[in-house]
């Protein structure tokens, strides 16, 4: 797959998406959104990729939508064009969340606006000690309801803290992001890449079907009551118990060795 707005590489079953406009802290353009939407949709059918890592080139992870190439042009769009654009941005998040493969954000610097949402839509966030997060939407006259922010952020940091972040748009540093649960790990800046790929390699060796089911059910159970969620989990777990991965996990435990899970 070839993409013009970011660097895309696959090595040892781990795909790297590296936003690549360091002069503008990897600001997003219309083309970037279009290509990210297509990429995460296509990855669902790409058996050569088991884990995805998204990061940025240079000092920033992603500073959000480009002021001139997106925000300026939105001023001249009609209602239909604006709706088409916002649906496309939401499709990026939808495709990331629907992908039954682990997505890791290696946040190497500022993650602002839509950049914060790319990190939020990932399953895990490994964060440089130089990183910052800012949900800037209300600071430019938009609502905090952007790319699924009102759905995802309260589930991760709680409603009270989410409302504060979305109302005020203030930047928080890596340590505060970790304290409130937005970051899974904070590491020294120089160690970020190694830490992200170490985690990626660990996930790649995990039972990928089971991880995919876990990710899917986290999403589906979000708006269920406990009874519905338990029924769904019982059915899903029973199906997992019929897989070769489950049998291999048991055999490996009995034989006191590392399991070798199905890679397809």
Summarize the structure.
The protein is built from 11 helices and 9 strands.
Provide an overview of this structure.
α1 packs parallel to α3 (79-98), α5 (149-157) crosses α6 and α9 runs antiparallel to α10 (226-240). This protein folds into two domains: 6-204, Alpha-Beta Complex (2-enoyl-CoA Hydratase, Chain A, domain 1), CATH 3.90.226.10; 208-254, Lyase 2-enoyl-coa Hydratase, Chain  A, domain 2 (Orthogonal Bundle). Helix content is 48%, strand content 15%. The chain has helices at 30-42, 67-74, 79-98, 114-121, 149-157, 159-168, 174-179, 192-204, 208-220, 226-240, 244-254; strands spanning 6-11, 14-19, 51-56, 103-107, 110-112, 124-128, 132-134, 172-173, 185-187. The two termini are 20 Å apart.
SSE map:
Blueprint: E1 6-11, E2 14-19, H1 30-42, E3 51-56, H2 67-74, H3 79-98, E4 103-107, E5 110-112, H4 114-121, E6 124-128, E7 132-134, H5 149-157, H6 159-168, E8 172-173, H7 174-179, E9 185-187, H8 192-204, H9 208-220, H10 226-240, H11 244-254
Number of helices: 11
Categorize the overall geometry: globular
Give the strand content: 5-15%
How is the biggest beta sheet arranged?
6 strands, mixed
Strand order of the largest sheet: 1-2-3-4-6-9
Which structural class is indicated by helix and strand composition? Answer: alpha/beta
List how many beta strands DSSP finds: 9
CATH-derived architecture of the largest domain: Alpha-Beta Complex
Query: Going by CATH, what is the homologous superfamily of the largest domain?
Result: 2-enoyl-CoA Hydratase, Chain A, domain 1
Q: Which percent range fits the helix content?
A: 40-55%
H/E element sequence = EEHEHHEEHEEHHEHEHHHH
């Amino acid at each position: 797959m070839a993409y013009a707005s970011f660097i895309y590489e696959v090595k040892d079953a781990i795909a790297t998406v590296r936003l690549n406009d360091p002069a503008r802290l990897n600001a997003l353009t219309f083309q970037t959104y279009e290509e990210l939407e297509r990429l995460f949709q296509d990855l669902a059918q790409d058996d050569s990729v088991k884990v995805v890592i998204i990061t940025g080139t240079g000092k920033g992870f992603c500073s959000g939508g480009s002021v001139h190439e997106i925000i300026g042009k939105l001023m001249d769009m009609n209602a239909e064009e604006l709706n088409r654009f916002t649906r496309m941005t939401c499709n990026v998040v939808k495709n990331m969340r629907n992908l039954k493969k682990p997505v890791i954000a290696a946040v190497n610097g500022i993650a602002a606006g839509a950049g914060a949402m790319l990190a939020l839509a990932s399953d895990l966030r490994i964060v440089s000690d130089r990183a910052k997060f800012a949900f800037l939407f209300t600071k430019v006259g938009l609502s905090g309801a952007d790319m699924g922010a009102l759905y995802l952020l309260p589930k991760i940091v709680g409603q009270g803290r989410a409302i504060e972040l979305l109302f005020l748009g203030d930047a928080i540093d890596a340590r505060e992001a970790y304290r409130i649960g937005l970051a899974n790990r904070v590491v020294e800046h120089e160690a970020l890449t190694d830490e992200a790929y170490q985690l990626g390699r660990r996930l790649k060796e995990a039972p990928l079907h089971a991880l995919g089911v876990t990710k899917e059910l986290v999403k589906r159970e979000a708006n269920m009551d406990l009874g519905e969620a338990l029924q769904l989990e019982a059915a899903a777990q029973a199906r997992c118990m019929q897989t070769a991965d489950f049998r291999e996990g048991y055999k490996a435990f009995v034989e006191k060795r590392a399991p070798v899970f199905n890679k397809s």
